[in-house]
Amino acid sequence: MAVQAQAGFRRLFNEIGPVDQVGIEERVAKYGTRSIKKHAKLWGLKTAVTMVDLTTLEGKDTPGKVAALCQKARRPHDDPAIPPVAAVCVYPAMVKHARRALGGDSAVRIASVATAFPSGQAPLRTRLAEVKAAVADGADEIDMVINRGAFLAGEFARVQDEIVAVRDACGAATLKVILEVSELETYDNIRGASFLAMRVLRPGDFIKTSTGKTTLNATLGNNQVMLEAIRDFYLETGLAIAMKPAGGIRTAKQALTFLVAVKETLGDTWLNNTHYRFGASALLNDLVRQLEKERTGAYQAPYYFSEAAESY
């Protein structure tokens, strides 16, 4: 099995090319040095707000907590100039409560983690039933996890077949494919898994770094590897796949640096919430705090802002 896996990886990397790790690290180190002027900073902060997937993924979630999350998603702050977020993300059992809170005409979408999130360790039929139930209850988007064990064993066809099955179970709902980058271990593996997923996704579907449940989540490095995979896939096929870094992005300064990476790698077309998201709910309060600072000239104390939901 190990020999077959090695042969499979060689074929894949021959097709898509390896990652220059030193080059990636040098490139991302420069993003934080960019000077962002006031007008561009304001635009970036508001745009980042619109890209947040506001999330609660706890065993103690209740309908009331989900309703409060939806209210914050719609109106992150009293200032009406601050826009709503992209989506709320909840477990499948909470989708119907989010739909009730948001109604049918909200600009805020409902996302649901599924496929035995975060491990993915359930029979495929169980994972697909979970997806179908979430969509039936009103989910607009599904965040699935790939079978990392199958990928690392070189069972690439199995990985793709499972993504296709989930994609079909989503119907019209957008699919976000979580690679769980920390368990893929290398930049080459992250690039390889990105291509495997993108080859069976639809334009507008996402690849996503992480569940937020492991020790290493979104970094500028693994984000850059995936952005470049999206760029190379787009140049090869003309199909635009979206991107979502998740976990560990907590400050407005970090978010702006990630947006610099998007602009310099993929261009302005990807600078919107149909092409790029942040799976980092703890980020929202800092974005709003920075926007208030830009408006008033003074920082508000953190207790003026409601608690952010779980970051993922």
TrEMBL record:
One of its GO terms (biological process) is deoxyribonucleotide catabolic process. Keywords: Lyase, Schiff base. Belongs to the DeoC/FbaB aldolase family. DeoC type 2 subfamily. This is Deoxyribose-phosphate aldolase. It catalyses: 2-deoxy-D-ribose 5-phosphate = D-glyceraldehyde 3-phosphate + acetaldehyde. Transmembrane segments: none annotated. It is an enzyme of class 4 (lyase). It holds the Pfam family DeoC. Pathway: Carbohydrate degradation; 2-deoxy-D-ribose 1-phosphate degradation; D-glyceraldehyde 3-phosphate and acetaldehyde from 2-deoxy-alpha-D-ribose 1-phosphate: step 2/2. Its EC number is 4.1.2.4. Gene3D superfamilies: Aldolase class I. The keyword Glycoprotein does not apply.
